[in-house]
Amino acid sequence: MKIHIISTSYNSNIFAYNNINSVLNQTFLPASHTYIDDMSNDNSIEILEKIKKSKDFSLINEKYDFQFIINDNKKFKIKNMFDLINDSKKFKDEDIVCVLDGDDWLSSINVLKEVHNSYQDNLWDYLYTNWMYSHNKKVGISRKIPNKDWDPYEGAWLTSAMSTFKVKCFRSIHDKNFKDDRGNWFTMGCDQAYVLPILKMSQKKHGNYSKVGFINKPYYVYQFLENPNKSRDDSTGKKMANDAYNAVTLIRNRGLIE
Asked: The dihedral of CA 11, 130, 22, 195: what is its sign?
């Protein structure tokens, strides 16, 4: 049972350093870390090139499989994840994927150790932790699922970062769950597009959420307001927020597609 980190990235700027170093400094190292740049138009590529040439990059590849992927066509998060997990032979069904966005990072050197131990002890389908904002350290909204009858499509969004899952659970999701009603891959709302199906399928299989774990520690640092290349207040930021709302509304109203 190996751990693989997937980092999808767009205009991540200098925060790529935090992301990559937070994995490198773990007491329990992953089998692989794949960092995907999805056609950034800031200085992210320049920063990634500097990382490639650094001594730390050489050190990383002595410890685990680290790969940069620079897209030449824009896929957005869920299509990047789908292609990587389904096409790569290094991802085995019983392995664990940890989703760490390209401008976010792990808050503690023991995150992967605790995640691995928790899977080993409980054989989870899905395990999530709490998170905190990078700018003020305020703890996020993640909390334990209240009861066995809770519906992930109807209930509040409780199970966000850090998001981890067994490879086999992701691969069992029908790809229609990742697309809108016209067959276009979601560009926003991508987390709920894959998390909600995993939760619902686990509940249906086991009759409860006995295979969904929660570590109530802010192990994930969410960079939300510090990147000047990702303004949340301009017209682009407002459009993204509106697109995310529309995507999530569709995902939730439609429910699980089997």
From this structure: negative
Q: Rounded to an integer, what distance in angstroms lies between the CA atom of residue 175 and that of residue 256?
A: 11
- pLDDT for 143 equals 96
Report yes or no: 44 and 33 within 8 Å, Cβ to Cβ: no
Name every residue whose Cβ is closer than 8 Å to that of residue 102 and which is 6 or more positions away in sequence.
7, 8, 9, 10, 12, 15, 16, 19, 35, 36, 37
Could you give the percent of the chain with pLDDT greater than 70? 95
Residues in the chain, total: 258
**CB neighbourhood size of 49 (10 A):** 12
Residue whose token pair is 């067994």: 166
Q: How far apart are CA 45 and CA 171, in angstroms?
A: 30
Which among 104, 102, 108 is positioned nearest to 219, based on CA atoms? 108
Evaluate whether 9 touches 37 at the Cβ level (below 8 Å): yes
CATH of domain 3-254: 3.90.550.10
- Please report where in the chains the tokens 């790969």 appear, as a residue: 67
The verdict on pTM exceeding 0.85 is yes
pLDDT at 89: 87
What are the tens digits of pLDDT across the range 86-114? 988 899 999 999 999 999 999 999 999 99
